[in-house]
Write a structure and sequence with these properties.
425 residues, alpha+beta, Alpha-Beta Plaits, Chitinase A, domain 3, Trigger factor, domain 2, five-stranded antiparallel β-sheet, four-stranded antiparallel β-sheet, PPIase_FKBP_dom, cell division, cell cycle, cytoplasm
Amino acid sequence: MKVNKEQLEGNKVALDVEVNEEKVAEALQQAYKKIVKEVDMPGFRKGKVPRKILEQKYGKEVLHKDALDILIPQGYQEAVQESDLEPIAKPEITDVFIEEGKPATFTAEVEVKPEVELGNYTDLDVEEPNIEVTDEQIEQELEARRQRHSQLVAVDRDIVESGDFTTIDFEGKIDGEVFEGGTAEDYNLEIGSEQFIPGFEDQLVGVKVGQEVEVEVTFPESYHNDDVAGKDAVFTVTVKEIKEKEAPELDDEFAKDLEFDSLADLKDNIKEDLKEREEQRQEREYQNQLVDAVAENSEVDIPETMVENEIENMLNQFKMQAQQQGIEFEQYLQMTGMDENQLREQHREEAENRAKSNLVLEAIAEEEGIEVTEDEIDDRVADIAEQQGQDKDQIKAFLQMQGQLDSLRENLKMQKAIDFLAENN
């Protein structure tokens, strides 16, 4: 095979590829074997029509498309490897020629990863984190745990106050008609939690147990249900019960309930837990600052394709988060008050920064000869398997089948490049 590489504008490359006659003959024969299986012709059993007869009836061109479907992907991959390129998009194939007894030719134009002009990436002026856990942080965490172990108890009053936990019945109407999702019985609602639409909970403050009141509200224009969005509604509400949250005392007994010997032991545990979390958070922040500093020192033209890929990755994350919260992506967009194009533009700058950071880290890995071993791949797969409670061999087989092992390898290489920065700054 012959390959001629031509540098085009920006990060585009043209590969003029010539595949020899032998491979063309093999591809044409494979195409014939595939096509003849479906051919019915008088005087021959199905799938047994000789190639010469087939070509006489339908023309030699009948085999060209299927032969090219074999030759072009193979030829393109070999040309990419021979030219030592890293494509970032699918190629555009033009100027295709195929004829039996002659070399096949085609041109592939493709975007490749741009060259990175690395700036200084050691002895950077980035301040290392100073890990400190304050008494205030410990008390805040202690109070949070105390609140998590609080219980709801009945109150000795019958008037609703902000912060109360109420049990209510309600029926909502728009223009005098009950609407879907607007009615419930024995519904538990914390007053002031903003769980309901604006104004609903505020109008229940001061209402007595057993009292029936009318609550007038307007659904927001961005409400996830288009049938009621922007419309006025009247809810008939009855308060049936009031409870409040009662938290346990902060003493040794509370600590023992959490399986500690004393309140002092609990505080020590919280301090160590907070310190570990703060170390992880600040280490991530320190690493991000190092990468940002190197990116700032380096020069690279970021292809639009890479930016769009990063934006697409972000959108997929948003969609996954929305799904985990039990809402559709369209509802998520309504809640943000944006359409998809606006969301894409809002995250464009972040996507550009991510793309540049990735390119810079790859360049550092190449410059420093950073590689990922099979043992490191296996260790990471074992971690994933443990997190998911599955067999590591099954996880590895699944990743391989999905074509995700290469991505895993690249992610590990990126992290090793980040670790290199942390160790040398």
